[in-house]
Amino acid sequence: MKKIYLILFLTGLFFSADAQTSSRDTSSTSKAGLQKNLLSMGFLLPGFTYERALNNHMSLSATAGLTFAIGDDGVSESSFDLIPFGYLTGRYYYNLEERQKKGKSILHNSGNYLALSLTYQKGVLSPDWPDKLDEQASYFSVGPVWGFQRTFKDNFHINIDLGVGYYKAKSPATDFYYDPINNEIVSNGYYLEDTSAMTIIGNIRFGILLNRKK
Fold first, then answer.
1. Domain boundaries, the chain
2. For the purposes of burial, counting CB atoms within 10 Å of the CB of 96, is it exposed (0-12), middle (13-18) or buried (19 or more)?
3. Is the pTM higher than 0.85?
4. Signal sequence span per UniProt (predicted)?
5. Following DSSP, what letter does each residue of the chain receive, concatenated?
6. pLDDT in tens, 34-86
């Protein structure tokens, strides 16, 4: 029988620290616009996020770092693998003016947004898979997401987005067969399993903002 090696992708959490500031502070934003450049560093998992404003409401955000995968061979073994990944979103912030009218801060791009997201993961940093299967593993997803980004007191920042999209993956898998003589399931080698489907996509990020405005 065949048992697919299941990889549970968890995008890393990112810390982004900045001071809680009034929306009337216009040193880094226009009256109802985005801060031009934001750079944050990963906290729980290593990585960096850079956001670049295109105009007062649109931006591009790119994250590169490491996430992890938990695998199970279906019989007795499990593994913990590190996976390099990239995450890109093209965002449209739709409630900046509304937040300012309510006296809320939009500093460091605090607002709600709609976005198109792309995720790409290539390779698995793991000694468990032979025949360079770890190097050939890959994951790609694309789809629309809704998200929000906020800054809080004591230099704390959070970004969450969630949506539905399409994914395509090549994951290391183990081929099994049943040995009736010894009454046990035996590995019959390894291969790459191709999978694709509609899925829930999203990210949760916290991080230290490296270029925050005073």
1. 2-209
2. buried
3. no
4. 1-19
5. -EE------BPPPB--------TT--SSS-TT---SEEEEEESSS-EEEEEEESSSSEEEEEEEEEEEEEEE-SSS-EEEEEEEEEEEEEEEE--HHHHHHTT---TTT-EEEEEEEEEEEE--B-SS-STTHHHH-EEEEEEEEEEEEEEETTTEEEEEEEEEEEEEEEEEEEEEEEETTTTEEEEEEEEEEEEEEEEEEEEEE-EEETT---
6. 999 988 887 877 889 999 999 999 999 999 988 876 655 444 455 667 788 89
The amino acid occupying position 208 is I
| C-alpha 108, offset from chain centre | 20
